[in-house]
Structure formats: structure tokens, C-alpha cells
Amino acid sequence: MAFRGFCDGTHRRDFLKAGSLGLLGLSLPAYLRYAAAAAAAGRTVDKSAILIYLPGGQTHMDTWDLKPDAPEEYRGEFKPIKTNVPGIEICEHLPRLAQNADKFAIVRSVSHNLAAHAPGQMFLRTGNRPLPSLQFPGYGSVVTKEYAAPPGLPPYVSLPISSTNGGAETAGYLGVAYNPFTVTDDPNKPDFSVRALALPQGLSLERISSRKSLLEGLDTAFRTVEVKSQDLAGMDRFYQQAFEILNSPKARNAFDISQEPDAVRERYGRHSFGQACLLARRLIEAGVRFVSIDYGSWDTHRNNFEILKTDKLPKLDQGVASLLEDLSARGLLERTAILMTGEFGRTPKVNRNAGRDHWARAMSIVLAGAGIKGGQVIGKTNDKGEEPADNPQTPENVAASFYQALDIDPHKEYYTPTGRPIQIVRDGTPIKELFA
Questions:
Q1: Would 9 be classed as within a structural domain?
Q2: Which of 55, 125, 126, 185 has a 20 to 30 Å separation from 117 between CA atoms?
Q3: Is residue 8 part of a domain?
């Protein structure tokens, strides 16, 4: 996967890369230690979530909120098409999503004022306006804290696809126990694998088993000693969990996308994003609680229309439509909340480079599943797509809605490491129309 920066030079920070994890190299057992600590506080629930994040900021004017009657310099090149819901139209380059419009809701009136990538991403990935004194947890970290995953599976998996996210994907004040299990390999590669689930070079299961037995003996010997050093983290049951993952087919099968028929893989699209959507479906089906997919970059300051129609929109259409169709057909959509967003919209007026620049005063967000009422548009922008003209909404309201769909109280209080109480979403109120 090719990772690149945005116009402002922002680059992704990888907090926990599954590609670098290896059994008895401490990282995987340490991860399992953190995950188990998270699960200990979790509840049993039959809901999961998928975040499809569009780094760079997707243009609302050329996707979900076209303005065919606006002046030419605003409306751009694309035309709207009808969907399977009377009265709702979206971009002509999203034909499959148009036929699945009954499964999702579009909120066209989201607005804020953070038109720079890093703060905008922190805002839209957490539902909280950034503060210099506190780093808020992302959606996946909150879900990880609230809900335990089945044994042998990570609760939160991140799939960054040819994009950056400015380091916004973090557990914030919740701590590293709630960071994602990040898979950096490209699921579209013929040899795609999750190296954390593979045997380290030169080691066999028999050899690892011998080491595990030795560690268990040492664990018994030191059982009365208070061991705090992370260097001795393996002398407990988390090495057993790591060993069980290598022995058990559960996680391995969930990540083994090669088990899917060729026709299914083609339907999702033989590209990184399409295969990430397919992998997300497999992970949710296996019991993973939260999957995030980063698909960028939508930072189209120039050649906006060419980039969208030849690359971004066809892939988005293919991957997301297939995901919605499969989740629905398998009975998973009713318990899987989906949120698709970037950090802001793009300027309604096309610039001299045939591009659109940063614009936070108006953006569109898509939600689906887990009790969210599909087949509707909430709010609208003015005739040039510049700002909300009806039913304005905030990123906090979107976050509160996403959590409500997951049966998580957005106003529940957590505590920072210093003992400060703070609500999951500080200022948001669920959008009532989503649940009408």
C-alpha cells in the first residue's frame, strides 16, 4: 500500500502495527495483555461497527449533495442519478450505491470550523472538538472498552488502505490497552498475510510450545513476586492466548481472505479498498467488534473530477455497496453500525486547478445499520452547497448517534489518568431522525 501525505504535510503515525508483531517477541503477547484488560471491563453485546474513513476530506458537492441548478463554477462536471428511494439522488459515479440507498442515511447538513487536516480528523474520528490538554479516544477504542470480543480475536482491527490519518487513530486518554490491531499489508495482494499470525522465522509450534512450558515454569517460580517489568510480560496467561491464536483457526480463518470465492472478490473489486471491505465483513462475521478502513486521499486541490471519476468513486461504490449487500443478506447489518466520513467537505466553488479546497462549513456523512433508518436524507445545504440551510448538525451529534446505534450512552463518563471525569461525547445529541 502506498502511503502519502496531505497538502499540509501531515503523515500517519502507526501506534501498533500487526505487521511487526511476533509471538514471544513481546509485542503480540503485550497486545493481548492490553486487549484482555480492555475485555475485562467490557460487556457482552451482539453489536459491532465499521468506520469507513475518507482522509483528505471528500467533496460533498460531487458525491452526496449535488447541485445541478447551481452556477457552472459551483456544480462541477457530475450529474445526479436517481436511487432506489424516490426523491433521493446521488452522484452518477455511484450507481451501485444508488441501488442500495434504502440501506443508508445521508446527513447533508453537518458543519464545523476546523478546516485543517489534523484537527479536523481528530474531531471527526472522536466526535469531540480537539483540546490541547487532552487527547480523546477514537470510536474503535471506546467500543473496545465497552464490549469484549470473542476469545482469540482482537476486538478492534484497523485497515489503513493507501492513506494517511494524521495520527488521529489513537485511544487517547484511555491508554494503549484500547489501541487498534493494525494490519498494514494490502489485502488485495496475492500473498496477503497478517504477519502477527504467522510463525516467526526459524520457529515451529513445537519449539514455541517448549518455550511456553519454560515460561509457565518460570511463572510458577515467580508467582509470589510482583512483576511490573514489561520485559517479563510473557510470564502469565497472555502468552497462552498468543499460543492459542497460532494454534487456533479462528483468527487465521477470519483474516484469510483467500477463502472467498473469486466471484465474491471480483464483486467487491480487486483493489485494496474493495478487498478491505470484504475483509471487514469477514472480521465482523467472526466476532470482531470494530473495524476501521482508511481509504484516501480525497485531498483533491487539483484534478478533482478526473481523480474522482476514474479512481475514487468507482472503488468506493463497488466496495461499500458490496459490503452493505452482504451484511444485509447475512443478517449482520441490523447489528452492525456503519459510519462513513472524512474530516470536512470541499469548497463549493471549483478552483482554477479544476480542484476543490478545504471546506468545513458543509459536509455530508453516511450512516447505516444497527437500527439506523436507511433510505432518507437529513438536512440540506443552500443552493450552492456552502452551508446548512435546514436541520444543521455537528460532528458531536453524528458521534452521539453512532454510539446510540451501538447501545453506548454517549454521555457516559470515563476518567482520565489524572482522575478527571469526562463524557464520551462532550456536547453531542443523537440525531432523532436517524432512529425514527
A1: no
A2: 185
A3: no
Q: Give the integer Cα–Cα distance in Å for 279 and 252.
A: 12
Residue 394 or residue 25, greater confidence: 394
Whether the CB-CB separation of 390 and 109 falls below 8 Å is answered with: yes
The number of beta carbons lying within 10 Å of the beta carbon of residue 50 is 26
Mean pLDDT over 271-291 rounds to 97
Domain extent, residue 51, equals 18-435
What is the reported pTM? 0.85
Please indicate, yes or no, if residue 5 is contained in any of the structural domains. Answer: no
| Count: domains in the chain | 1
Indicate the DSSP class of residue 427: S
- The CATH number covering residue 233 comes to 3.40.720
| Residue 121 cell numbers, joined | 480528523
Q: Which residue has the cell 499489508?
A: 185
Any domain includes 10: no
What letter would DSSP give residue 93? T
- Residue 104 · residue 374 · CB < 8 Å: yes
Tell me if the bond preceding 297 is cis, omega within 30° of 0: yes
**Which residues on neighbouring strands pair with residue 278, listed in sequence order?**
none
